[in-house]
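Q: Is it fine to ask for two folds in a single conversation?
A: Yes, each is treated on its own. Send the first.
Q: Here.
A: Result:
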Amino acid sequence: MTSTQAPAATSTPSPVLFEALAALGSSADDPFIPADAPFSPEQRVWLAGFLAGVRSSAIDVTDAGGRTPQLALHVLVGTQTGTAEAIAEDLGRAASGYGVAVTTIGLDDVEVDRLPAMGHVVVITSTYGEGEMPDNAELFWETLQASTAPRLDGLKFSVLALGDSGYDGFCQAGKLIDTRLEQLGAERILARVDCDVDYEEPAAAWTTQALSLFGALAPTDADAASAPAPAAKPAKKPGRTRSPWTRKTPYGATLAVNRVLSGPASSKEIRHYEFDLGDSGIEYAAGDALGVMPSNDPALVDAIIAELDATADESVDGSTLAERLTHGFEIRTPSKDLVAELADRAPDSELAGILALAQAETLDSWLRERDILDLLRSTSVRFDAESLLDVLRPLQHRAYSISSSPLAADGRVHLTVASVRYAVGDRAHGGVASTHLADRVAEGGTSGIFVSANAGFRVPSDDDAPLIMVGPGTGIAPFRSFLQERRERGATGRNWLFFGDQHRAHDFIYEDELGELLTGGVLDRLDLAFSRDQREKVYVQTRMRENGKELYAWLEEGGHFAVCGDASRMAKDVDQALHELIAEHGGRSTEAAAEYVHTLKREKRYIRDVY
């Protein structure tokens, strides 16, 4: 998409501009832009925001006493990886210029019964996995969709939804909240905007337009003179200075360590990485994630170029085809546009037949181990270079849980990553970022990185509080950082780790470190679950149930419960085990145990970093 450059701001809007706007007329969808104007949806969103800003800049909102009337706006944030929080911070910084005073609140801190009194609300929320609410929005959504939810007549709102169109549940969390607010009687003053992975431009346009429209609702001069300004707190400030290093401008960090952790007979390849942060000024906290900007496998790039009957140095959009395929596009995971194009142009193909079934699970299963080269070879359809790139998605960063505490890492940041490798027929396949790190960045080489803050996944602020951690496999990563953090802080709270994998002899990563933490008194309990070392498989949730009485006792003493790892199975099984042991050892009904878990979540004592 071609970006549109905003015109330079002027102190006084031109009368010619207003005359032009009047000549354009209006539409039912937007008061500024006619319905038949020749703009793309993205251009329409940007232009509407710009014009709204121009209109608001022409309004003198200063009252007779020299004060600027302000409207109290509550910004409610649902986040999994910190993106929604960053957008909310941008909105908060810009708000004062529109006569808006912002209060920013995480959705897990919002009491639905208080929504009617808020008056003016925007919701900025991501979507997790296949259309699920982010962790910090679960309880809010449960209450909002319940039959007991209050009427919201008089509430004015807008929603910004964040998502990834590569998933079927694209922006589903935002869509659900947007619809439910309207069902309860709230008035939508700005249509929901759904943002894909390249969210910056549409999010900025929505922010401008939302602030303009809400700012126009600020008290009039008479109202402001007779009533105090709304008692709204300023936007929540970030805990540390925002880094200039982002997914758009990653820092080229030197890879100082690339070490295999798993044993030679393991079915997995798990590696420990350390990046030197140099003079980047990058700050992070235990619990954050590190974004890695990968490059694609050069062998796969060459094979695709050959399949296209093209050449590596062929010019495409000012660069070579090889460069574009290496650094510009996803070539491991087929895009929905490519799948649809192939099915449309090859209606008798196996892919078209599967797509016609309209069964998402069947299609996902068929695509799971196939890359773009596999799809190109599965039909007789032929693409040229430009037409193929038109149906591919931009290459995205991969986020990995950081496995070090900044208090212990001495200017470095550590990762614990499983290299994804498998064969399909006679072809070797690999994960994009995991093999980028393992194979294409040698020690001493560089890779683009940036920090993704995860404020909802943190070491307990109370150093005396007990901490229970469940992290099998590479899920141990953030708990290695938690234990380092508590050791460096001199925390006195007890620490209990549940860890496991397939075989103790080959998959017990960080065994020596964990032994030292046990000996040193930092780690009070370590329960291991190696599933393939006996006939009956044993998992971390098995160990939880075996030690349920003591685990419940730790919770009753104010303990925190943290989980990291696979979301589709492990995290669900652990959650079920937690509910069951609370019911059993707390003498509670199923419903009462569920409420106990809800309380843990509300108190930020049950946190998850799952993927």
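Q: Second one now.
A: Result:
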Amino acid sequence: MSRQESNAKGLRQALSEYDSKQFLKPFGIPVVEETAVADAGQAAEAAARIGFPVVLKGLGSTLLHKTEAGLVRMHLFDETAMKSAAEEIAGQAGADLEGFLVQPQVSARREFVAGMFRDPEYGPVVMFGLGGIFTEAFSDVVFRLAPLSAEDARDMIDEIRSRALLDSFRGEAAADLAMLVSTLTGISRAALEYPDVAEIDINPLLITQDGSVVAVDALVVKAPIAEGKKFLPAVDPSILSALFHPRSVAFVGASAELGKWGYTLLTNAIGGGYKGDIYLVNPRGGKIAGRTVYKRVTDIPGQVDVAVVTIPAAKVPDLIPEFQQKGISYMLLIASGFAETGEEGARSERQLVEQARKAGIYLIGPNTMGICNSHISFYCTGSHVRPEAGSVSMVAQSGNMGNQLLAFAELQGVGIRAFCGSGNEGMITIEDYLDAFEVDSLTKTVMLYVESVKNGRRFYESARRVGRKKPIVLLKGGQTAAGTKAASSHTGAMASDTRVFNAVCRQAGIVKVDKPLDLLDLSAAFSSLPLPRGNRVAIMTLGGGWGVVAADLCEHYGLQVPELPGELIREIDHVLPPYWSRANPVDLVGENDEQLPVKVIELLANWDGCDAVINLGIVGRRHMLSRMVASVQTADPDCPEDFMESMLASLDDFETRYIAHIADLMESCQKPILGVNMLRDEKDKTVYTLEGRQYKGLFYPTPEQAVKSLAKLCEYQRFRKKENRRSPKA
């Protein structure tokens, strides 16, 4: 009972509803018990055996969406109603009718949908969400890649907006969650064991009054197994390590003209303090910046580790034999004019990559804006920004975005381990960088700006593996709902590139952000703070209003603000005036005694009832004081100038000691402590590095940045805990 359906991908075979359920049943999917019959008489007999009331459906290999076609009759209570319904269905279906399907009438008000489709980049994708006639209307669906663990399935169930319908609801029992999990993992197993199954659609998946789960309709579509997409071979992580640690660099296409890439990159590397050997290559020879210019690569007297190439695209292939002769294995290909220009450019890029691969040459790009390794003062990027050395490794698929992120990192004090503008990724892809970051001991946090991935399944697997050890913070560019994946099922129709990519991020533990500055905020948090054990937050504020705002933000982002226990209140009573709030947030009531915030934050950090502390308005007061001093000096010439200056110095000293105290508390309590400046100017940084201390001072401009960052830390910690439960050795 099947049909052959032609589409752009070849022959597809849609199983009948009956055959679809028989296929799914062995995988633990609770399909309704039913009988397939040939005519109205057999239908009446089957109904008598099943027991009225029943449901009658038209059955045929071309009859896929029967409800929409009017081929379903429900609540049939006797033989007369059965025969009448059969006649109506037969008239509606015509020659396509091959028989009838008789089912018991299942009473349920809660309808869900579950299914699977095959994504060309990521493979089998499982879906779950609100079903029935509301599937498309409310679009309340979630996705995960197969294979699906029980934990993944539970995450899907908890993620839908209509999750409350699965609890006890208006006199109906809570859904059997174990059966729902079994259904989703069963769909996953079916997809993996039968690679010719292109789509699975179960809609509706009913939750009955007693909480039972029943699949009353199903569709399985088979298709020829597609030929596997050819992906670029993986690059050994040691190759990337060598690219970022050159002992000597040749600038091929070096220029003396201000504004040219061959001048910008050269002067950035020299100005940044790179200590390795630098060679310049240009057919004109002569001197640039007082250095000898060689006419050919082979004229260079010394060994070259990395060549930075800025010559026109058409001339790049001619360099390959010279590089091979000179023994240069690594090329940073700045030149554009390749795949980003269209098909002809893409063809030229493929030919160049193949030529380089045969010659044993590895290239970054083409169309890259450069790389940097702050730890060896190697700054070779299109903008003269030089962030300090740190533990954040960054890759950007956009040169402009990379420039901005590096500049923000420098301004905010976010230390960079290494940066690469990956360009067109003709040879070295985002997946290769992830593999390299996994084994790099100096990389503690990974920051990515991604517009597309070359190998979706490998990206997911690498990210999930890396994410167990190090947080990955990602901003996705070009987020579009790029059409449906398939037309036969609700599952395929509800999927989009954005939804699938978001599911990949959630399942892999990637911390996905929506704005460029969120990347820096999160990278600062992950590189400066210990991870929270849970989501309970204590708040300390110099003024009540900020505390209220912070508490509201915590609730919005899924963080708890627990009540203070009596014992802690009594301890704080010994520190603060009697009119303090006696609640969380703890309001310091505007007191200027420097010891109050030091003592209170220590009490909060040591409180077992919280997992993190946010302090607001303690740091940054020197800006207000400096303005006050300026006003006093203008208004009152008799005010002693040395006294005012000593006040400023005293407050500066306090803030330095306070930040160090916070770092010490984080080390002893292993809890993140985040701050919000009262005021800040362009000289203030977000991150304060403290010599000899494991953690850093972290102070954001706004409460929202602090709370949002803490919420993302909690999100990542939940992923880590889940992965540890799955694989304790990970």
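Q: Anything structural to flag on that second result?
A: Two points. The longest strand covers residues 197-207. The radius of gyration is 32 Å.
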